[in-house]
Write the C-alpha cells for this entry.
Amino acid sequence: MYPLQRNRRLRKSKSLRALVQEHSLTPNDFIAPLFVVEGKNIKEEIPSMPGYYRLSLDLFKEKIKTLWSLEIKAVLLFVKVPDILKDNKGTEALNPKGLMQCAIQTIKDTVPEMIVMTDVALDPYSSFGHDGVVKEGKILNDQTVEILTEIAISHAQAGADILAPSDMMDGRILKIRQKLEENNYSNMAIMSYSAKYASSLYGPFRDALDSSPGFGDKKTYQMDFRNRKEALIEAQRDIEEGADIVMVKPGLAYLDIIRDLKEFVDAPIAAYQVSGEYSMLKAAAEKGWLDHDQVMIEQLLSFKRAGADLIATYFAEEAVKLI
Ligand code: PBG
C-alpha cells in the first residue's frame, strides 16, 4: 500500500529497469519469411510491403548470408509461381526441380546451419488461389491432404528442416506425420499453422505471391475470428497428430490466443506477424505518424509477453539490427 509500495522505485533508471525486465528479444526469437521468384538478378519490391522484396535465387544467397551474419537462424520460404505452372492440384509443388526445392538446396549450399522452414500449401500453385483442390466451388479436404503429404516429402527430400503446413485442412498433420515416418524422415519437425484465422491482414502477402483466391474466400477452412476456444482445440489436435510447434496467425490482434496456447498446450508457440501488420506500420511511419523502430520493437516484444517462443516477422532483419 502507498507509500510503503511505490511502483516507480524500480523504474527510476535505465539500468534498474533493465535489471527487472521480464522479457526481451534476441535473434533466436526470429523467423524471417522470404519470397522467391524465378529468374536472375531479380529484386522486386512488393508495392504493398515497402522495403520487402521478391528475390531470385542468385540474390537470395546474399540475403541468406546477411541474415545468418545477424544471427537469424531460421527462414520461412514462400515461392511465387508463374501462372502457366498453376493448376487445380498444384502439380508444380511436387517438381523436384521446382522453385521451392531449388531454394531449399540453395540455402543448404550457402549456409548449411540455417534452419529452413517451408510453406506446405497449395495456394501459390493453385489456379484457383485456394489452399485446396477445388470441385464445384468447394475445397476438398481429404484429396488436398493427400497432395500435402506428397509436398511434405518433396520438401524433406530437398533438405528442409521444418515443414510448415499453412492450409488448415483437417487431419493434415497426422497424414504428413505418417508419410514422413514411412519414408524414414522421423526426425523432420512440423510447425503447424494451427490457429490460422481467416484474416484480411493477408492482403499484401497475396499481392506478393499473386495468390488471392479467384473466387470466394477462405472461411470454410481458416478459422472464424469470432472464436477463441476453437484455437485451443486446433492446437491440441495438431500436437496429438504429431506437430512439434504450433502457430497463431495473425499476430497482434490475436495475443489472447497466443496466451491461451501458452497456458494450455505443451509445445513451443510461434506467432506470425503477418504482411498486413507490416504494411500498416510502414504506411504510418511513411506518413510520419508513428516512430517506426519504437513501435516495431514494442509490438514484437508484445508477442514474447503474450507467450510466443518464436516470431515469424517481416521485421526480423530490421529488429535484430536494433536489439
Ligand atoms: C498461404 C499463406 C498465407 C500466408 C502464409 N501462408 C496467405 C493465405 O492464407 O491466404 C499469409 C502470410 C502473411 O500475410 O504474411 N497458405
